[in-house]
Amino acid sequence: MTATIHIEHLHVVRGGRTVIEDLSLDVSPGRVTGLLGPSGCGKSTLMRAIVGVQVVAAGRVEVLGRAAGEPSLRHDVGYLTQSPSVYTDLTVTENLQYFAAVTGAPPGSVDEVLAQVALQDAAGQVVGSLSGGQRTRASLATTLVNRPTVLVLDEPTVGLDPILRADLWQSFHELTDAGATLLVSSHSMEEAAECDDLLLMREGAILSATTPDELRERTGEHDLSRAFLAVVRGAGA
Fold first, then answer.
1. Residue 190 has pLDDT above 90, yes or no
2. Residue 219 region, left (φ>0) first, then alpha (ψ -120 to 50), else beta?
3. Helices 132-144 and 92-103 meet at what angle, rounded to 10?
4. Burial of 174 (C-beta count, 10 Å sphere; 0-12/13-18/19+)
5. Is 15 helix (H, G, I), strand (E, B) or coil?
6. Cys-Cys link to 109, which of 45, 81, 105, 236 (CB 3.0-4.6 A)?
7. Sign, Cα dihedral of 139, 140, 141, 144
8. Which of 132, 143, 138, 137 is nearest to 93 (CA)?
């Protein structure tokens, strides 16, 4: 099975400091892969490299068999940053209509994603008046509006209440059931149980590529936070 995202010997330096050194990994198609690790471990830098907006010192990054950042990937890859990426002086609907026009989204996609992120009631509100969680959902909606094949989501559930978080994870799995591939970062191991595959990251390196069940079996820990700690301690031994 050909990997949707393929990375070989990635090396990234930012501000004179090595953030990622000799990192290699594969992300399988049609799966939700969780990129899990503490804040500052390099998750966002890795995601930036995958979508082609990060200068890399060495290595190869491919998405759908093409070099990351190639213009031909713009309609195939959706990217959600940690900071909201919507226009604060436009309404939610106006933002979505704009991004739908730019990306050539199919008819009806605006209403569809509004329902998907539960923002129908706020559709006519100016984004600048929304709460932090609502802005995050509006940003996610702009990422989803053209139904990309690959979604790279950096901390998409931060600041959301448990019910909405659960609804979004259900939506993520519906997307993969329809053929999409998702790479979702989080610093919370509670979210690991929602993922099909896991990439455990620390200090710019992938400690383990596994699944939630494999991680529990390997470490003997049912709690995934404790299982992650066991992997970290084992790597430092």
1. no
2. alpha
3. 20
4. exposed
5. coil
6. 105
7. positive
8. 138
The tens digit of pLDDT for each residue in 132-178 reads 888 988 999 999 999 999 999 999 888 788 888 888 899 899 999 99
The type of residue at 5 is I
Q: What is the pTM of this model?
A: 0.91
Contact yes or no for 34/220 (Cβ under 8 A): no
Copy the structure tokens of residue 195.
């993922």
* SS3 state at 223: coil
Determine the average pLDDT of the residues in 9-23.
95
Q: State both tokens at 100.
A: 């739908």
Mean pLDDT within 31-53? 95
Please give the pLDDT value at position 172: 92
What are the domain boundaries of the chain?
1-76+163-237, 83-147
Q: Which helix (H) or strand (E) holds 61?
A: strand 58-63
First CA to last CA distance, the chain: 34
Dist. CA 132–CA 203, nearest whole Å: 29
Homologous superfamily assigned to 1-76+163-237? P-loop containing nucleotide triphosphate hydrolases (3.40.50.300)
Give the containing element (helix H, strand E) for 114. Answer: helix 109-116
How many Å apart are CA 2 and CA 19, to the nearest integer?
27
